Amino acid sequence: MKISDFFVKCNCLDLKQTLFCGQCFRFRELSEGEYEGFAGDKYVKLKQNPDGITITAPEGDIEFWREYFDLSLDYDFLLEQFGRDETLKAACRGRKIRVLKQLPFETLISFIISQNNNIKRITGIIDRLCENFGEKTEFGYAFPTAGALAGLSEENLAPLRAGFRGKYIIDAADKVNSGEVDFERIKLLSDDEAREALKVIKGVGDKVADCVLLFGLYRTSAVPKDVWIKRVNSYYYPEGLPECVGEYAGIAQQYLFDYARGELKDTVFKKK
DNA sequence: ACCCAGGGTAACT
DNA sequence: AGTTACCATGGG
After folding, report:
1. A147, exposed or middle or buried, with CB in 10 Å at 0-12, 13-18, 19+?
2. Helix/strand/coil for A11
3. Which nucleotides in chain B lie less than 7 Å from some protein C-beta?
4. How far, in whole angstroms, is CA A7 from its chain's centroid?
5. Structure pTM?
6. Nucleotide nearest A121 (Cα, C1')
7. Which of A8, A51, A238, A263 has its CA 20 to 30 A from that of A34?
8. Is A207 in the active site?
9. Nearest to A185 by CA among A198, A172, A173
10. What would the pLDDT profile of A25-50 be if each residue is shown by its tens digit?
11. Which class for A60: exposed (0-12), middle (13-18), buried (19 or more C-beta within 10 A)?
12. Nucleotide nearest to A124 (CA to C1')
């Protein structure tokens, strides 16, 4: 297949910030400003330019990656709106994070693994999941399909060292594989209905379900309430996020998450 | 040794 | 309906 380079002009996309802010777990830095990774079985190499990025991928996948980075959404306008709130304005300063449009099953499994866990170890478990059960390609291992994981035992997943999450991974794979959980159907539901439909999976509660809604089903209105966002909310937004987030509360949340986990952890949220 | 990590479940009030 | 111990693993 023909591998192509594709330059995309974009003034709101910092690859390092976007790929390593805890929304996705399958990318690595090759050298300063150069990255590679997978979504499902699709491989891509990326390069940071001052005014955009260069996508290197099979020619037929370029459109997939443009969509993955949600390049048609106008972040200039969005961040201008966010700037109407002082806390959000501070959170957006120096950040060029885009919320990615990831694959639903991969997002589901990834955030099941994320529970009561840290980003470094989440990445390690997902690496081992792919190496053990993903299809091997010329570039590396694809993310396993639901079919590849369905029917496995907890013992089969022992090499992942996922702890108590193993049984949750299997239940999710079984229910997606059987069609009991059907992303195409869930896409048609309201946020509340979709969240409940995902929560039939063992180990999926409100937070993991909202991560799937936001990162895997493109619901920018979904706000996953992790420990950091709970801290932000109780300190800055006891009445909820400001009006200026509009239909994009989930994107605002990602900026607040990174802000809290970064700058605020040693100041506002410093532990005594 | 203790605490925490992009939480959820089950068993309690 | 709202709390709380417990769940595996690894890093600080």
Report:
1. exposed
2. coil
3. 4-9
4. 23
5. 0.98
6. C10
7. A263
8. yes
9. A198
10. 999 999 999 999 999 999 999 999 99
11. exposed
12. C10
